[in-house]
Write a structure and sequence with these properties.
The radius of gyration is 21 Å and the shape is elongated. A four-stranded mixed beta sheet has the order 2-1-3-4, sandwiched between helices. By secondary structure, it is of the alpha+beta class. The protein folds into two domains: 102 residues, Orthogonal Bundle (Peroxidase, domain 1); 73 residues, hypothetical protein PF0899 fold (2-Layer Sandwich). Helices cover 57% and strands 13% of the residues.
């Protein structure tokens, strides 16, 4: 089911991108995320809205109330109505994610997230930034840093195109795989 949602999310994102290319903004994408967050905070709401008992002519009014409660413009109502009719409101987050990737690619920008097992010092961050810039020298780069204690003394760098990891956990996993291969 997850793979199907991802594929559908990509298709919707591509269609939205094609429709709104000149006017598509990061604000539009953030608004989609706000609606997805609103639905995540009220998990029963998508189920009710996607019921066959909610008549199609009531959906625009219901979705207008959702956009109002999520504090986003009503420009999203037609998309929400279409998703609700097709029982696909769960696609909002994948749609926003893939839209962001399309916009980034068009603007020659890459986003990287650096996960570390502990807080990084400034010189460590600069070393990582240098490494990331060397991977894509001709692109605009955005890097965010997050702590992830389950890395066990390590660092993981993730973008849409790559993942690089150096951690004790990864080393243990590699040793385990080598030992199992010998058995």
């Amino acid at each position: 089911m997850h793979v199907i949602n991802e594929r559908l999310g990509k298709r919707y994102a591509q269609a939205l991108y094609n429709l709104h290319t000149p006017t598509l903004s990061t604000e539009f994408i953030e608004q989609l995320r706000s609606i997805a967050t609103f639905f995540a905070q009220h998990p029963q709401l998508p189920l009710v809205l996607e019921l066959e008992r909610v008549q199609a002519h009531h959906l625009p009014a219901c979705m207008a109330m959702v956009t109002q409660k999520a504090h986003v413009p009503s420009v999203h109502v037609p998309l929400l109505v279409d998703l609700a009719k097709k029982h696909r409101l769960s696609l909002l987050e994948p749609i926003a994610r893939y839209l962001e990737q399309l916009v980034d690619a068009a603007q020659n920008r890459r986003r990287y997230t650096v996960y570390s097992s502990h807080p990084l010092q400034e010189d460590q961050k600069q070393t990582i930034l240098s490494f990331v810039q060397a991977q894509a020298p001709e692109t605009q780069i955005e890097v965010s840093f997050e702590e992830k204690p389950n890395l066990i003394c390590g660092v993981r760098i993730i973008s849409n195109e790559m993942m690089w990891e150096r951690s004790v956990r990864k080393t243990f996993l590699q040793i385990t795989q080598r030992l199992l291969a010998r058995i």
